[in-house]
Amino acid sequence: MAESIRYPHNWGKAWALLAKAAADNGDTLDALKFADRADAEASSAGFDGTGGALALLVEVADATGDEVRAALLADRVEDFARSHRPSPRGQPGPLAVVLIREMLRGDLDRVDALLPRALGAGAGAYAGARAEAGAGAGGRGEVCLWDVTDGRLVHGPLPGHPDGVLSMTALPLPDGRVLLASGGDTGTIGLWDAVTGRPVLEPAANWLGEVTGMCGAPLPDGRTLLVTATSRGAVRLRDPATGESVGRLNPSGRPIRSVTAVPVSGGHTLIAAVDTQGGVHVWDPAVDDPWDPGAAVQLKDRALSDAGHRVAVVAAVPTADGTLLATGDDRGAVMVWDPATGTPVGEGLPPATGTAGLPVMAATTLHDGRTVLVTGTRHGHGLRVWEPATGAVRQILLDVTITCLAAAGPEVIVGHDHGVLGVPLARR
Question: What is the pTM of this model?
Fold first, then answer.
């Protein structure tokens, strides 16, 4: 039926339209069947109109009485809107469907959180730029540097970023300098001096797609490279002095959703990433051939499938015995892995009431040596602070709407809809 359409990238939209038509006619079984096909197309590969198709599926889920699915789909629409350019002027974007839905449901907190993003504002990315400072940016392309001790604006908005900022990372260099890298929704990559706020590399666009993730990669030869990942599956190693690509990862070419650096023994730093289908990839940036695993060991597929763990975000977890890898899914579950063996460590953090949604995650080590992992959801108001070694979990409720997290020693820095907030993690 939908596959009879000439171009495969239109199949998802066609299935979504069929699902909406069936739901409007009261045919719940066909609506759900068509919605599953549309969802599969949207999950397997992005296509023009993905946001609109997901917005239709929100309406289908509401019409068929599946509130849980409608909420999860609304989260995905929000994530899509955050990582793509807005709809042409005069055309309603997919986020408008979610705004209307939340208004009708009376969820004014969610409306308040979504409005700045719909208008192109809000802190959409954050990175700890140095010990006492952090940087944040949002949909208008404004990069700012804050003092995390008192929330004071140190530099910004930094000039020159022409598009909305989707990702950021701090990039400590061997000479002691710390650079701030930013990636935009049209592929722009910028580099800034974290002390002066001045551009080291003028933001320049590339054709590889919006930059969905960034991290630094120290190599055994002493160099530190910038890793950039895009929605088109291009993962590049870049020279921070020039911004030029000096290597590539991700031979599968799958679109990347989240990426992190994981230091391991022998001076290696592995790069872990998750694609839009929930697949986790681990690469060794020190090897020249992207197909050569080098020191990288992949996570055990059986452990992922047995846990029903469809990964959405990855984060490095520092411990006294080395760095582990954490993976989080849209239910709020977290698993921790040994990157040397690809096997799970401990029992993991199970989902809980209110934890479903697009996850954000950061890990740090407190002054007393304890490792804590902090999780939340975008547009949510609560954090879970988990100690993997003991299994202890506590909650922190905030009066801001969360957009992103970053670790800063004994604090977690919360990017929210109006700026940044430092949250102490040590018990008093």
Answer: 0.70
